Amino acid sequence: MKSLFLYFRLPIRNGDTYAGEYFADTMHGFGVYRFTNGHHYEGAWHEGRRQGLGMYMFRNGEIQSGHWQNGVLDIPSTHNNAYPISPVGVYHSKVLNVVQEARQASERAYDVAKVDERVNRAVVAANRAANAARVAAVKAVQMQMNHVNNESFSIPVV
């Protein structure tokens, strides 16, 4: 089944960047958001907000991971697989799986941008070649017209 998500690498007005899945003009699905201050979030998005499993990394190395609800860490993850923190506990291994999905979506977004760049270069080259061919054709027609005009209006020399 084909995904309805598009992959984008978006620069945000304040200098932040997002790379990942994009749907209905917003971050939606898996992706990576990098803040200009050095922090970044990798994980699930829903309608432009951190939603679901994900990991927020501060530039000082501190990490907050777990389940996010409306952009806020709702249930922190635990490294203890035997006894979760609460009945609705989130295992860190599950968060890492989602982070891996977000990173893959981010890589796909960068790949799409690379393909777009190559396509744009090819279009520019094709346009240049078409313009050169058009100029050559016009010059050929002009030369032909000058040749025909010179023969039909030749002045006899006596």
From TrEMBL:
<dbReference type="InterPro" id="IPR003409">
    <property type="entry name" value="MORN"/>
</dbReference>
<protein>
    <submittedName>
        <fullName>Uncharacterized protein</fullName>
    </submittedName>
</protein>
<dbReference type="Pfam" id="PF02493">
    <property type="entry name" value="MORN"/>
</dbReference>
<keyword id="KW-0677">Repeat</keyword>
